[in-house]
Amino acid sequence: MTERLSHFVSDAPFDPHAIERLTPEQERFYMASQWRMMWWRLKRHHLAVVAGVILLFSYASIAFVEILVPYDLHTRNASHIYAPPQRVRMFHEGEFIGPFVYGTKQKLDLVTLTRGYVEDRTDIQRIRFFCQGDAYEFWGLIPGRFHLFCPAENGTLFLLGTDRLGRDMASRLVYGGRISLTVGLIGISLSFLLGITIGGVAGYFGGWVDNVVQRIIEVLRSLPELPLWMALSAALPVTWSPILVYFGITIILALLDWPGLARAVRSKLLALREEDYCAAALLMGAKPSRIIGRHLLPNFMSHLIASATLSIPSMILAETALSFLGLGLRPPVTSWGVLLTEAQNIEAVALYPWLLLPMVPVIVTVLAFNFLGDGLRDAADPYA
Fold it and tell me: Is residue 174 a contact partner of residue 360, using CB atoms and an 8 Å limit?
């Protein structure tokens, strides 16, 4: 005797309009734009969200660097050369004091002939908040003295130690982020413009235009990057001001980074230009620039944004490497690469290891961009 199978077909009357009655959640999903769906998928990538928050905080802070740090960029403390980091404490002998540091006394080691510092437990220096401190010019324009936190009156506050001139490393590191982080943004903007324009023209028109562009890209990609960076950076006139050198380095990095993006744009446009909507726009009299900018590029703009976030770290690393080698930015401009030049002397690194601390924000920023780029690339995938 055969077992009777369950009948799964609904015996309810057929309603041709049932498909139109969606639940609010279904309607929210089906009516969502591509960017909204991309944002929903990105929020599920927790590591990318954390990386995005770190980068957002970092880029927001560069607008208020002068206020966030306790010392001006060029403030020197001649009596505290190569001073070690001071530890922030809350309790003194079991009693709650609030944020403070102990004062330091300098001593000379007659054996190694090095300066040493010992804490003076009797000298309690309370950290001041929302205070008047070192004078500065906000963005080089507006004079001011307001700081988020300051050392005690006639005290010191070296959270990351000092360098060979007695300058606070923590303050200089935050100042350096303004240059190193913006080099990546400005550089990728120029590279983005070149890559989209040249790749878009090659992919849309094809033929001899595509052949010429591809040969130029192959020549550029065949050149070793670091020696080429070094040669072009060394060619910058030594009489240029720090601002001109900054923009010169940025342009050099942008001019050497566009070929990869151009190839990606070209390959996408070669496929998309054969679509029906592209042919319809052409028949309606749309110009090539409008077809590329209005109909073709928006179809994979999310992928381009993901590619850009993965390219910015290479810009930051390139600037850091060139400045470390003395071929990029130079003092008085301060970047993370310039700060690392203090660590070229192995003796100084062995005795004063806090001089290596500028590499920490470089590592954190590069990792954050990579994690955010991975999250954006997954979110931009329509099949994810």
Answer: no
